[in-house]
Amino acid sequence: MSVSDIKNKERVINELLRFIRKVLDEPEICDKAKEIARKYSGQANAAQLIAEELSSTTNVNIPIEHSDADSLFLEVLQELVKDEKALY
């Protein structure tokens, strides 16, 4: 593994840690994120739509060009909603 790969992984981990802290400080973000993900579930551009609405309605800022951490968060959020639907 190259030094740049290691640095990139560290950056992603640090970004995710900051986000997790934000969610733990403001737990309503989690409910809002799931609500938004449900709204756009199944749409071709769901990740972008979720990111835009989440950024405009909470203090979570997901830029237009998603970082690896942003993409990972959006992917996990969409999987969570899919799993939810599968249970019902």
Explain the layout of strands and helices.
Layout: H1 3-25, H2 28-40, H3 46-57, H4 68-87
Helix pairs in contact: 1-4, 2-3, 2-4, 3-4
Put the structure in a nutshell.
The chain has 88 residues and is mainly α. The protein has helices at residues 3-25, 28-40, 46-57, 68-87.
Describe it.
- The chain is built from 4 helices and no strands.
- By secondary structure, it is mainly α.
- It has one domain.
- Helices cover 77% and strands 0% of the residues.
- The protein is globular, with a radius of gyration of 14 Å.
- It starts with a helix and ends with a helix.
Relevant terms:
88 residues, single chain, mainly alpha
- The Cα radius of gyration reads 14 Å
Q: What's the SSE pattern? A: HHHH
Question: How many domains is the backbone divided into?
Answer: 1
* Main beta sheet strand tally, sense and closure: none
Estimate the global geometry from the Cα principal axes: globular
Strand percentage: under 5%
